[in-house]
């Protein structure tokens, strides 16, 4: 009854404001338009003009682009399509810009921001989809599912007699397997068998499934590795944190960039801060050596540490990450020994896990050149040779160390003298291969200086005797190395029998100190 009343009342009620407030279906009065007609007109006019301009502007572009390909039949459609796409693109861009503005407005200075990324029209990674590509989400038609869903009856077969079809039927199974492929991980590209009636046999499907799983696991592993390894020049999150802490604590002022990258480490340059630690003043320029945490490089270097008695007990029980820390620790101990002996080398500032901070050899971010890159006068060359000879003897006697990787690549020329770097692999002479390493160093040094024209340069065997103070008299290399190995073997037996760590090489008195 009430409704009828309203209906009846409707004709009498004028379009007055009182009526509108009562009933939402009232016809709106024309007077409620607040803007003038002229505004509407001008607005529309502007739009039309703009469209005309665009129409005038774009066809030329299209014609230019399409130039060589235009044929009689596709001239109109191709350019129209192009126009439509361009206009759509323009619209999408405007829409995105608006979204971005709204996003900014909502987020303001908030630390937690909301992103409208998913509502954007133009996605930067979208490729131009070709016309024959169909997006199945749009067409709502899945080529793998039968048009009419076929249900497998409870008894598991359809039909009777020789027309019987069980659930094991090849065709039914094959189609089912094809549809099941959709459940693989999204990264696993199964392709689209559109228009093909694909039937995957169980064997193929199972193999694919297995492969999909192992791929998934592999990508997870790769991701893991990426997280944990300091890549070529980059720094993994853990290392970055260590470096940030050093800068924040004021120990370093700024880290300026990468100086060199090697097989097992990356070296950065930094300006030292002013917070002097208890006993050390931080040098104005520092070198930060970050030992790479990728593990494969260390597999071939473990021989240096494994038999070094100082680290021996700890080596076997460690995971590779800790071994890398041990490299850094080893370099620090070796540098400290060398510093105490007065051998020119970087001065240790601090060691944090696998990051070693040392003084920088060079000036104003320019590292000192390696001996192999620098051209020295014959006078300087000779001076360098005697200095290195002296350093090798000091290293062997006072520091009880063998560099084990000594060559023109690990010696820097700075301030008119030679500096030794990269001593992470240095070992003690009692190391089972210590003397072989020393002989290798001697060979590198003598070859370099003989090539460099230093007439006084001893050959590798004389140099070995001069440094080690052993008098090995063999006159050819094979016998010489055999004697070295025999000595090592003797020493190793001695160490094992007596548990002693002292060198037992019988040296005939002190070797001669070579000097200019």
From TrEMBL:
Residues 137-148 have a biased composition (Basic and acidic residues). This is Serine/threonine-protein kinase RIO3. Its EC number is 2.7.11.1. Interacts with CASP10. Interacts with IRF3; RIOK3 probably mediates the interaction of TBK1 with IRF3. Associated with 40S pre-ribosomal particles. PANTHER family: SERINE/THREONINE-PROTEIN KINASE RIO1. GO terms for biological process: defense response to virus; innate immune response; ribosome biogenesis. The gene is Riok3. Belongs to the protein kinase superfamily. RIO-type Ser/Thr kinase family.
